[in-house]
Amino acid sequence: MARSKEDLRIAARKRKNAVFHGLFLASTLIGVVALVMLLYQVLSQGLGWLNWDFLTNNSSRRPERSGIYTALIGTLWLMAITAPLTFIIGVGSAIYLEEYAKDTKLSRLIQTNISNLAGVPSIVYGILGLTIFVRVFAFGQSILSGALTMTLLVLPVIIVAAQEAIKAVPGSLRHASFALGANRWQTIVRVVLPSAMPGILTGSILSLSRAIGETAPLIVVGAAAFIVRPPEHLLSQFTVLPIQIYTWSSQPQAAFQNISAAAILVLLIILLGMNAAAIILRNKFQKRL
């Protein structure tokens, strides 16, 4: 018996579904396999060099005496400045654009520019930071200049993510808050932000993950490739783990390749720790909803 057109249409849809399912599965497996191979190479090269001396020694021209103490402290300083600035300014900007700004040509222009800035190459932010923070404000080649430059770099990401999270809060919650006598600011603080916080923290994870691994903007603003002393104040010279890793990996000696792999492991541990803390906070906010 001949199959009907509807049966043929359903069979064609099933074939298309199977094809796309296979393509998406293959894409996922390619990424997972590449990640596993990368982790295996880093672990096999760097795990044997990862010890207390490696964490507490300063950089040296001899690989067996080299450590990441200076770069590690510089990275922690950088993130300690960048993270609060990014969160406060980014969330504040998103609140204004979503809750206070009117739908005008100016606000739409600002919104478009913020979305476009999220795709600007990082080296452009480095040139901007060199011009504004290093030269105009005369902060010099300091960790403050680097942190402010990284803040500019990741701000568009967290602003867009925070806007989407705030926009996803149902309007009925706002109306219920107004009906109970709360003003706009009380509604934002007690109703909107707690509901949007999981999405905001997700954007924070993405933005700070990008910030901790960037190298080009910091090189432009003057981060040192070789420095002995860790930063002591905001205007100190500095280096960070990505720059230290790049410097070691460009050396011809095989031992430098191994210690660069060990430094990558430390950077991954810091990144995973930051992400874990943000995920824990996000889950706590989700449980309250």
Would you mind describing this structure in some detail?
The structure is a single chain. The chain has 289 residues and is mostly helical. 76% of the residues lie in helices and 0% in strands. It contains eleven helices and no strands. It is globular, with a radius of gyration of 24 Å. The termini are far apart. The model has no long low-confidence stretch (mean pLDDT 86).
What's the β-strand tally?
0
Task: Write down the secondary-structure element order.
Answer: HHHHHHHHHHH
Chain-averaged pLDDT: 86
What is the C-alpha radius of gyration, as a whole number of Å?
A: 24 Å
Kindly name the structural category. Answer: mainly alpha
Largest beta-sheet characterization: none
Low-confidence stretches: none
What distance lies between the first and last C-alpha atoms, to the nearest angstrom?
A: 56 Å
Morphology call: globular
Binned strand content: under 5%
Q: What descriptors fit this protein?
A:
0% strand
